[in-house]
Design brief:
The chain folds into four domains: about 1-95, no CATH class; about 105-185, no CATH class; about 185-245, Type Iii Antifreeze Protein Isoform Hplc 12, CATH 3.90.1210; about 255-319, SH3 type barrels (Roll), CATH 2.30.30. Helix content is about 20%, strand content about 35%. The protein is built from five helices and 21 strands.
Amino acid sequence: MKHITYIFAFLLGLMAISAVSEAAQVTLKNTLTVEGDEITFGDVFHGAEEKTEYVIASSPAPGKNITFKASSLAFVARKHGLEWNPSRSIQRVTVIRRGQRIPEQQITEEIYAALETELQSDQFEMALTSRGLNIQVSVNELPIIEVESLSYSLRKETFSAILVAPADAENPRRYRVAGKIYQQVMVPVTAHLMRAGEEIREADIDYKMVRRGKVSRNVAIHIDDILGKSPRRTIRTGGLINLNNLGEPVTIPKGKIIAVTLKNGGIALSITGRALEDGAEGDVIRVENIASRKIVQAQIINAQEVRIISPQKRLAAIQ
């Protein structure tokens, strides 16, 4: 009976040793990812048991990773009663913190709104110049971003902003973002192709927002400056209208057969002539006498008639 008791005790001892051995088996996890602000033994190892919640390091920023030497990790584990010995193939252990990326469009909209408030205008264009912009928050945080501070220079056409994310956190992370800002102005443009000599009417005009820096002193800004005028050269659809390219609408085009009149006192003569150049009402143009082939200077009266004028009147007409 005593012999049986010893055997039973021996078997119980073996079972206890086996259980301890199994409980103490610690292995490295295949996927090492975390979501919170801290890394624990449980994030790294299988079999950490009561040491599962023990914090061994702070987590990196969302979307980033942190790397430990395998030998250092093994030392910390053994120090806390976890037996883990890395194989020769494991030199380093990398832990990744999961994150959710804030879209660049959302970042742009936040900065645009802040600039709009500062400028008290929405007539501007902006573009980010910061490269590789990658702002992330953890998976258990709201993907909210906010402009904490903003500075800009309209002369240099630049801006710089400090962003915080997540915006509702007590200690949000901060990011510096830079970009370009271009003031814009609304200008009249041609709604369709305008050929030389055509009169510009309100129906021929559309409007377009363009960068102020592209609007020279000669570009039309007010519609009143161009209505009733005529291009000297063709203007493409949507093109800016250069005031130097405008004149009065062509009343008589080059080559047109017209009546040439001469009035001197009570005498009035009329001959048939051909216009040698375009002209608007009131302009003095060269006209060829069809019969004699002589060329005279005449002032345009209307679309059918020009009148030969004296040198004195001609000088007054062109001044």
